[in-house]
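Quick one:
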Amino acid sequence: MPTILKSAQETVDIRYFISSLPLGVKCFAKAVRSHWSIENSCHWTLDVTYREDESRIREKQLRENMAWLNRHTLSLLKQQQNKKSVAMNRRRCGWDDNVMLKTLMGIKS
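Output:
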């Protein structure tokens, strides 16, 4: 985990991976960075749109169910081919039942 410092100092973290894939170092490093880029992007969107970091759910099974539901609905909202943000599309679903049904059925609006 990166160390967070209040000053502008640079930190270096070392990670070790074990893999049987016949990849070169550069290709493997690119794959790892790509994975974390997607992961960070998804986490940021879930936190901004669903405020997941502020969740007070403590029961493990309920927390896992809500995380799955949030990821699923995020996927549905991202499929909307309009110029509105994910957060705005989510609000529109709350304001209008027809928009919500179209979104849940995967009909582009």
